[in-house]
Amino acid sequence: MDSVYLDHAATTPIRPEVRAAMAPYQDARFGNASSLHRWGREAASALEGARAEVADSLGAKPSEIVFVRGGTESDNLALFGSWRAGRALGRPPRIAVTAIEHSAVLDAASALRDDGATVLVLDVAPDGSLELEGLSTYLEAAPGLVSVMWVNNETGLRLPVEAVTALGHKYGAIVHTDAAQAVGKIPVSVATVPVDLLTATGHKINGPKGTGILFVREGTQLHPLLHGGGQERRLRPGTEDVAGAVGFATALRLAMTSQAETDRRLSTLRTDFEQRIAAALPDVRIHCGDGQRSAHVSSIGLPVEDGAGLLMALDLEGLAVSGGSACHSGAGAGSHVIAALYGSDDRYATVRFSFGYGTSEKDVERAASITADVARRFAPISREIPVS
Amino acid sequence: MSRVLVAMSGGVDSSVAAALLVEAGHEVVGVTMKTFCYSDTPAHGKTCCGLDGIVDAKRVADALGIPHYVFDVEEDFTRDVIDDFVAEYARGRTPNPCVRCNSNTKFRDLLARGRVLGCDRIATGHYVRIESAGDGPRLARGLDDSKDQSYFLWALPPEMLPQLLFPVGELTKKEVRRRAHELSLVTADKPESQEICFVPTGDYRDLLRKRLDTVHPALEPGSIVRADGTHVGEHAGFAGFTVGQRKGLGGGFAEPMFVLEIRPDSREVVVGTRDEMDRDVVTVSELNWLATPPLPGARVRTQLRYRAPAVEATVEWDDASGTLDLRLDVPHAAVTPGQSAVVFEGVQVLGGGRIVSARRSVPVAEVNA
Q1: Which residue in chain B is spatially nearest to A327 when comparing CA positions?
Q2: B236 CB contacts (<8 Å, ≥6 apart)?
Q3: What's the pTM?
């Protein structure tokens, strides 16, 4: 029995073009980009080529791209780095985040709160609307850092980053967005949406794990978290992962150039999937269905108590999906995102289906039918569903 | 072949149970119950998933090529097993946490999860057997007398019997180890777990101190008395005693002294000689039957402690209270309230219950007279 992988928001397979682009730097061109000799120059040239390619994809300047080792690191560099820079400049430590940020942002913010920062956590409605008035009041008192994700990883919900950026800049705040789930899925450009800091990661866009960038707009003050050899304009010291940078740049370019087509293709698949699910299981809830969503995620609430058992059962039938978020589904803990959107006493179990490179109509059809079959095993509400 | 859910503790028995089921051609799904945290911080998420048992079970499952999941039953386990364990000691009784765990937590959860995971059968590494008979499956002792674990399984929901598989119940421990070696399972030489799993230090009183109120009668000093009320000493808390215990009573007695009874209301620990320990009527409540309950006057065998031999008894029912009296042919020493009394017919487990009390039908004085 073939398995169906619908967990592209957790991670994605590496595209062959990406693997091919990386291969020389994992082989003959192994040099250290800081070395003066030919090997070093080759590596440095590849690294700077990758940087220019990333900048081009995002509408940035090459000097604004800092290669880091993944999304979590990028988020932490954005929050801690700007907090440290602000502290050096004597700015009051203030941060605003949404309640549905990735834990790389939420936990970093909470660590900063332990260090004395004031943290505002903004509520988000299931349609994606934010308390912008509350944010205004907060920033009016004193600006700081605002971090709002572009696309939520658990629901696909799009947040109004453009409006938040305009508001933040009105009060002189620094605006960071975690765009890990947005790049390649929706139009993302720092030229049209002038955020100051932007996080992207390779493994969500068919690139290698452990790669990513932080876009740092020229003039944005940032301090490093690590200290060492001064690489990446001192913001991320450590011998550069040239193959990773090349892989990331290639993956990002492929994702960006096919973004509109991806959106069309995945929208069709998701609509088909959600229609099938709703027809088979009328009691389900489609999370953020009334909001603007990226097409690659379909988060479904099922009225069953045993969410962990549901995921295990789906896995046994050959369907790879996540609970609220793959980062903590193994521990069986509930999702802070669903709790923030639908309340902490919510009785629904969440299954996140996420589509991507290689997902076919047949996959979606099978996923819907497996889910419907498995959900009917759960008592009591699923039992009332008429068999179509 | 059917899909079988097998509970894998990370020990050698359940590892081999899983291997035998794979060998037999079943589609096997391994699970490990995460029952509690070793750390003092309660429910600390992921840190508990690193427990050796879970890691070993996963490695065995990987080697066997079967999926493996972790069932987090910590909340149920704490409520149904640990809280009960503490409450029983606080009442002066000596609990069987493994019986509670099997009946209330482990098998109940396996049953529920097994259903939604599409499993027709449920297996564990217990040394017991399922025998098929005209009136349906029966639970029977394992073939290896020295490892038999039927004492812990009397409280299973009877409706589960048709679903249960106990592959190692047909083997001796030696054979299980040999099979584990043949399969190069990482758990092949793992030592037996003897302690109560949630008391890794081996001293349950640490747990009681942690979970009972700071000042609790069970942990307060009290008197050690003889059966006639004579004061013979002091103890530091009756929760430290179990019926039949000899340790911790102090010296100075003409002959060895044993705990006869614990009286939580007066905090007294009653002690006496070996002869005074004998009881021949055992009252049992919280009964569960895996077969037709024995009729009044039925001749059965009963096991009153793990690893104790089963003894001949006659069944008497107290219809008013619904309790069972087991009248032992030969008086038995150290019958302990809180422990299980398991009722057998031959090697078949009929059922069992918790010992409420035990008495001597003929007073000691008369016997001695």
Answers
A1: B46
A2: B219, B221
A3: 0.89
